[in-house]
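Fold this sequence, please.
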Amino acid sequence: MNGYEALYLLSRAEGGRLKRIDLARRLALTPSGVTRLLEGLEEAGLVERTACPSDRRVAYAELTEDGAAKLEAASCGHVGSIRELFEERFAGGEIDELADLLARFPGVAGTDDSCPAV
């Protein structure tokens, strides 16, 4: 889940990149924990480490094209699994009501619904 979440956070960040320390905070990981996570994503070609041109002490995690493609592919399966989970437990009207309530959270309105139901 942390790998998916890291790719997601990077995809939403300006320029597809975040300072590694900021990514660690958003994932609630220690600096060494985010380093281990990013090493695996870097080896897979999904993320690359980039340096700040004005401050060599700052390192960024940047989403690659392969990372964006992998996230898109995984997102549809992830969304489909969540839909299935909700459809097993709620009636259609309840799901609509819950969606309306959750749409009140910041950043939710106008989200892309391009992943088909499973």
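The longest strand covers residues 47-51. The radius of gyration is 17 Å.
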